[in-house]
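Pasting two entries for a bug report.
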Amino acid sequence: MSNSDRDDSEDEEAWIPFSERAEWADVQPVPQDDGPNPVVPIAYTKQFREAMDYFRAILMRDERSERALQLTEEVIKLNAGNYTVWHFRRLILEALSIDLFEELSFIERVSEPNYKNYQIWHHRRWAAQKLGPASVPYELQFTEKVLSDDAKNYHAWSHRQYIIRSLGGWESELDYCSRLLEEDIYNNSAWNQRYFVITNSPLLGGLHSMRDAEVDYCLEAIRKAPSNESPWRYLRGLYKGDNEAFLKSKAVTEVCLRELSKDCNCVFALDLLLDLICLGLKPPSHLFALFGLDESSCTLAKLGHFLCSHLKEVDAIRARYWDWRQSTLLLTDN
């Protein structure tokens, strides 16, 4: 049994019905109205049914009090996806001027079994917005904790990007990405975050300023794991909107040729080489030899069509995509 399951069972055993609590004696619970003949009534537990009955009562009264806040906590522990409860809790927090750092701690407790709950992440973003830059260390630490458990958690990455972009925290983010990639070079989410950082950080000077260093980083990653698609895509992204620099980059051409000399079926090297050919790259002589082609009669157009045909064979799952690529080639035999 997990800690969260054990805590839930203990809470249920220790639970005292609201109807037996002196502080709720003045409240008339409001039952859920399912109509006179519900077709498939939900088998709510007694605890859940009574908690919601009392929640509906305070919601109708718009009661923003300490006991109402405590009630929302109990209801959220029973169903953390109830957006109405979360919304009303925010109204209460504001009305009572509750310390939102304490609220961050509460969110962390209830989120442990619910790291993919939209309502929890929305509420956490709201709290961070209210706290401003002072919340940044807490949010970076929290998302790092979540991502250590699930490296691809979209909610955590989205929240982290929002915090950094809106409130700050750029200073160590590139190092964080590097650390994640050292642990797992195949972590495509970390590659995505790295690109987000170098293209958006006000401290790094932008994509053009970072390109040379990042190209070197990519080349090393490709050397370690040439079958890993992420660094190949990242490398192409470093030249987004600048095909001239992409075509002129000796490093890009050389990494394609290097990997193809080791494995002429390397899909990602073939793909990148095709992009270069389509932009007008003049292939070196030994490229033709790699594929047994006659350089004297193999024009750029023929080479482009050959690469597409070859990719259909070695990347059969995307054969229809390579068919489409081949149909869109604008290369000529001139």
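Entry 2 (this is the one that rendered wrong in the viewer):
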Amino acid sequence: MASTALKRCLRGNSTVSRCCYRSMHAAGQRVPLGDSELIMGDTMERLTPHNDLLASPKQLNERLQHDGYLYIKGFHPRQAVLDANLVVLEHFQDQTNVLDTDNHPLGNGILKEGCGLGCVPFLEGRNPISHHPTVLKVLEGDHAYKFFDSLFNMPSATFDYKWLRGVHRQAFTGAHADSVYMSRGSNRLLTCWSPMMDIPLELGTLAMLEGSHRLPAFQQVHQTYSALDAEAAGLQGTGWYTTDPLELSQQFGGVWKTDDFEAGDVLIFTMRTFHMSSKNQTDRVRVSCDTRWQPAADPMDTRYMGALKGHGDAKFGLHNTDPQATPKGVTMDELKSQWGLVWSK
């Protein structure tokens, strides 16, 4: 049977309905994850929610330490998320007119033909949209503070910088650990990924490499790559370890897992848990946001606090695919060669 998220998709227009329908077929479904195509039930598995542990912060922490992530359904109020998504879509249309509202409702987020890299407005940082009251009601709502206060067993804090993104067709995020981008503060920092809409596999979902934060085979990777300060090293390009998920799972182990997500769901994970996203195979813009949380008493990475930040501050990730962005820097391939981590398929 179709999940609730897919049933909602099936009520949409025909374009959305056709792409969502394929997610009803879980076993054997092919998932384009970066440069490889993984098969559900074989080289990829479905995530299992951790909602049954919500009454016990101790068990949540134990599961976080074991799996490297927490998958919580309905973490945010669903309607609040959908309201925030509409704010984002309205901004996209007002700023760049990238949505095909002549043929589809604005809320469907259908991109105009030909919209690719650089077409969707950049929203990362601290700006009027990332910090719009309707958006912050989701990202920094009382429910979020209550959860993280309980998880840390002390008052929590979150970065001012928000990684709010719209992802166009065929785009994806490569495999990486967040430690390379934000290692100058708390060692208890966590990422919280929030889909701002229903996101079935075809829209490009986040995939976790379960166990990658702790498996012994990853020790050399964590002693080298995960310990890297990408900015200090002058790393060129995205900061991703690889765009091929099999480079990690076949060499070092772990299981790639993902799911069809609903507005309100979250994935919370450690700085050393490898993750990436599948390709957006649709004409819709996929909207999601990363926030970072930590104990308020711990030192914070000051690069992500305070003044407004703009496109020029996006040194790494999806919006920096130009390997020459840091001309005098070092490439990931050069570093992996130095570390003895070159992969031969």
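Dev reply: Rendering is fixed now. As a check, the viewer should reflect this: Residues 264 and 324 are 38 Å apart (CA to CA).
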